[in-house]
Amino acid sequence: MTTAAEHALLASVEKALLIDGTWRPATTGATFDVLDPATGATLATIADAAPEDGIAALDAAVAAQDAWAATPARTRAEILRRAFDLLQERRADFALLMTLEMGKPYAESLGEVTYGAEFLRWFAEEAPRITGRYGPNPEGTGRMIVTQHPVGPCYLITPWNFPLAMATRKIAPALAAGCTVVVKPAHQTPLTTLAFAQVLIEAGLPAGVVNVVTTTSSSSVSAPIIADPRLRKLSFTGSTPVGVALLKQAAPGVLRTSMELGGNAPFVVFDDADLDRAVEGALVAKFRNIGQACTAANRFVVHTDVAGEFAARVTERVRAMRIGRGTDDGVAIGPLIDQAAVTKADALVRDAVARGAHIATGGEPIDGPGTFYQPTVLTGVDRTADLWREEIFGPVLAITTFDTEDDAVRLANDTEYGLVSYVYTQDLARGQRMVERLATGMMGLNVGVVSNAAAPFGGWKQSGLGREGGVEGIHEYLQTKYTLTADPF
Ligand code: NAP
After folding, report:
1. Label partner for 20 (CA 20 to 30 A): which of 38, 166, 358, 447?
2. Are 292 and 263 in contact (CB under 8 A)?
3. Among 157, 164, 235, which is best to mutate for testing ligand 1, by the most ligand atoms less than 8 A from CB?
């Protein structure tokens, strides 16, 4: 099923666990298959770690910690910068690898290489800027010194939807801060992480600083690592229920945690919006990554006066979207990650229809091979529908209407999530009011994508804790020490 170029690329990726600078099989010898969601074909067979492999990876991270923390920030930065350069050189390979194992269209995969690599460049620049404060205490009897220190060995758990960027967004700040790590990618998309670990080694990273465990037993491999008192930090990107379970596991050890969890983004279109821009923004906010993004617009909240035209225009564009394997030219909609995702999207559509929604286009799974769902537009969605509360995580654009600005705010904030919101209005004062009133950690004002390595990415409410990227990102991996020195000097 794979072409010769794809075959060669897949053959170049390590299929083993990376522990202490060595590629090794799982202690049990177990393996698992990584599948192409567009065809169901096996792409590669890789090591399936057992709990003892996870602990061996932590052993390596612990052993490497002191030397890495003592490595000059400039040296750490140069390794990250070399990794950035190598990713640029291998853009096409990384993009193809992501399209193969995750399914997104190749052009979007190239975009993810740009985005993911930027975390390496950004945190290479941040590493030498870890600073502190010095000054007299208010009583004038001593000097206060505030310094920053790496938190120590970290466990990083990443999801399948952005296989490169979710890894670099954690690994780069951790390394920049002087922390060593164990990384556990999602079982559906481990190949990108393995290939990226190869890049880090080539960039000069010492053994044990980054360790990778791939497994189909994420719970039994993770639990002993999280319970180990040598671990000092857990950073997780994934669903809110798993995040909650991990927070409970992290509590006894009082671990530092960063949680990038689920979203349920409102996309609000006011009657004064530039509809051309709103339609373009809607298409990218909804259909990027085949709707499988935490930042995906989940609920379209559109003013009654423009809802008909907005729906007609997006429907026309969605009908024209080409569906297929992400490697094929012009494909906008690749497969969903697995059959469970197709079943979920379909159940949400059926439920919305049972509660009065109208299918403007799509609304059906597509027969295999592969796990495809038609790009779909629903109008007249009732707020009792399950998709109003749950992340759709699929190519389904669901529209409901509002009449007043207060209504729009109430509807937009009607969720326990708070990751991102999108607002389209040409009224500057209204835009400012929405910045104040919407309860999300991020907001796109007349734009449909907000992600940027230079920005603090993260959510409010049940969308998570902490920030990734920006000047904030490195502080997730640093701890503060305050020292008081008595006068006189
Ligand atoms: P998920 O099921 O929560 O899995 C995420 C990661 O956690 C995977 O590596 C998974 O490994 C692992 N995992 C699952 N159960 C675990 C357990 N009991 N112990 C330890 N690890 C466990 O989420 P997903 O379906 O992969 O990703 C989609 C979710 O991620 C959505 O909710 C989305 O909104 C969220 N997300 C959030 C952000 C953000 O920045 N806020 C970014 C991207 C995605 P296995 O799959 O191998 O079991």
Report:
1. 166
2. no
3. 157
Residue 239 backbone dihedrals phi, psi, to 5 degrees: -80, 155
Map out the domains of the chain with their CATH numbers.
4-261+463-482 (3.40.605.10), 265-452 (3.40.309.10)
pLDDT at 1 over 70: no
Residue 45 burial class via C-beta count within 10 angstroms: exposed 0-12, middle 13-18, buried 19 and up: exposed
User: Mean pLDDT over residues 350-371, rounded?
Assistant: 97
Yes or no: say if 366 and 316 are a contact pair by the CB < 8 Å rule.
Answer: no
Give the pairing of strands 142-150 and 478-486: antiparallel
Neighbours of 320 (CB within 10 A): 10
CA distance 392 to 292: 8
Q: Is 148 in the pocket of ligand 1 (CB under 6 A)?
A: no
Q: How many CA atoms lie within 13 A of 237 on its CB side?
A: 28
| Cα gap 250→236, rounded to integer Å | 11
